[in-house]
Amino acid sequence: MTETHIVRQTPPRISSDTVHAALRAALGRKVTSGDPEKMSAYLADQCLLTTAGVPAHLVRATAQEDVVETLKVAHRFQIPVVTRGAGTGLTGAANAIDGCIMLSLADMNRIVEIDPVGRLARVEPGVINGDLDRAASGHGLGYLPDPGSRDISTIGGNIATNAGGMCCVKYGVTREHVAALTVVLSDGQVLRTGSRTRKNVTGLDLTSLVVGSEGTLAVITEATVWLHPRPVGTSTVVALFGSLRQAVIAVDILTRTLAPSAVEIMDSQTIAAVNEFTRMGINTTAAAVLLLRFDGSETANSTDAELAGDLLGNHGASEVFRTNDPAEGNELMAARAVALTALESKGAILLHDVAVPVHQLPALVAGVGQIAERHELTIATFGHAADGNMHPTIVFDAADSHARHRAKTAFEEVMDLGLSLGGVLSGEHGIGVLKQQHLPKQLDPGTRNLTKRVKHAFDPMNLLNPGRAL
Ligand SMILES: Cc1cc2nc3c(=O)[nH]c(=O)nc-3n(C[C@H](O)[C@H](O)[C@H](O)COP(=O)(O)OP(=O)(O)OC[C@H]3O[C@@H](n4cnc5c(N)ncnc54)[C@H](O)[C@@H]3O)c2cc1C
């Protein structure tokens, strides 16, 4: 797949040596220039469908001052800057642009403060999501956003992509967990947005604007995020269905009366791949499996899980299993967590991230089935059913050029199908390079124009991740 939508800036008139000297004077050995071997780990994220350029300079920042100095040099010489967390993104948003400064924040990984009274944590952007949650657990608290990459992705990357995950149906996406940010603008100016108060309606909500902006508006150098009491008394329900459509209809009915903290779905192709990968012994004759989690108090969640089991049984589930044992529940949910890795072991994959209104899920899964049939492709579908956010995943032979072409066509058809059902181009992975050219399909010209003016207000020289996301 060699589709590149990267907007390459006019090459800077200044020589790379001059820029290197300026960066070196400000940052010392944190800068590397023109060393292909050292750069190789920073070229691209995890997206297969996009290609990447080659950075001229790599800065591994360890403090906010390094970011300020980097951006001042970039501003002076008008060099594009790509900010990078862990590079686990799935849209090419952190891919290098030819001649850019690649600004890695992975080494800014200090948990600065955990405030159990205010239920807040203040962290540098390179802190790994799961590490913050584990640190918070020492205070009986949790950092709840749970992308599947929580043990490898950074808080800065999660905020910049407004990452989702399994628990969003109850606890919301990353945006709901961000109280305040410290950011550096493209000219090196440092700003603080938001507050440590539960409520704040002072001025425009710039925190929310930066969340999900994919490194295009500012570089996040510190985040203050909300912590919550750790969910207790987890109950888990597994329900097998003879039809995928029946399963998603049941989800819509269930969430009208119950409030689970996760409702995950896997189709038969995903179940087979997970089973082969984990040897978990899931019933592979089922067309779909639903995995639901309830948490709250011991009594409330076991009652809800019981009600959910009955309800699913009455709405098409052929088998229902319930457990109030959190460890057993975690093992069951782990099946869904490894879905992507299990599918990757079957061939090259194109992972989609389409979100539709929940009542349109039956039409989405039917349409994806037709697309798979038309292009003679395997499309395995799994995802966050109660959010209407599915990941139809095309598994294909990357060495076969016809298969690659069919996969790309099917990918675009799934996107169009989602939009035709009132959905959006992305539910959680973002736009990046992958879907940037498709934005006009969803956003009207007025909205795009205003977005460009907002970008201009933050970054008048278009230096931060130019040509991506917006
Ligand atoms: C196995 C696997 C499972 C995944 N599961 C999920 C999931 O369940 N939900 C989900 O939403 N995503 C998921 N993802 C995608 C990915 O992990 C998320 O998008 C994540 O938020 C990216 O974090 P990162 O640190 O890797 O950021 P990167 O990939 O390095 O960067 C992502 C974007 O953020 C920008 N950025 C990074 N740090 C900063 C900063 N400090 N300031 C400004 N901009 C910044 C980059 O420029 C880029 O635009 C998954 C990925 C994998 C590989």
Structure description:
The protein is α+β, with helices and mostly antiparallel strands and 470 residues long. Among the domains are: 16-106, 2-Layer Sandwich (Uridine Diphospho-n-acetylenolpyruvylglucosamine Reductase, domain 2); 234-420, Vanillyl-alcohol Oxidase, Chain A, domain 3 (3-Layer(aba) Sandwich). Helix content is 35%, strand content 21%. The protein contains 16 helices and 19 strands. The protein has helices at 16-27, 36-39, 64-77, 129-137, 155-161, 168-171, 206-210, 244-254, 268-278, 298-314, 326-337, 339-344, 361-374, 401-420, 439-442, 445-458; strands spanning 31-33, 57-60, 81-84, 101-104, 111-115, 120-123, 141-142, 178-184, 190-194, 219-226, 228-229, 232-241, 262-267, 288-296, 317-323, 348-351, 354-355, 378-384, 389-396. Strands 12, 13, 14, 15, 16, 17, 18 and 19 form an 8-stranded antiparallel β-sheet that branches. Helix 1 runs antiparallel to helix 3, helix 8 (244-254) packs antiparallel against helix 13 and helix 13 (361-374) runs antiparallel to helix 14 (401-420). The two termini are 22 Å apart. It binds flavin-adenine dinucleotide (FAD). Flavin-adenine dinucleotide binds at residues 45-46, 82-90, 93-94, 105, 125, 147-149, 153-154, 156-158, 160-161, 163-165, 214-215, 219-220, 340, 428-429, 465.
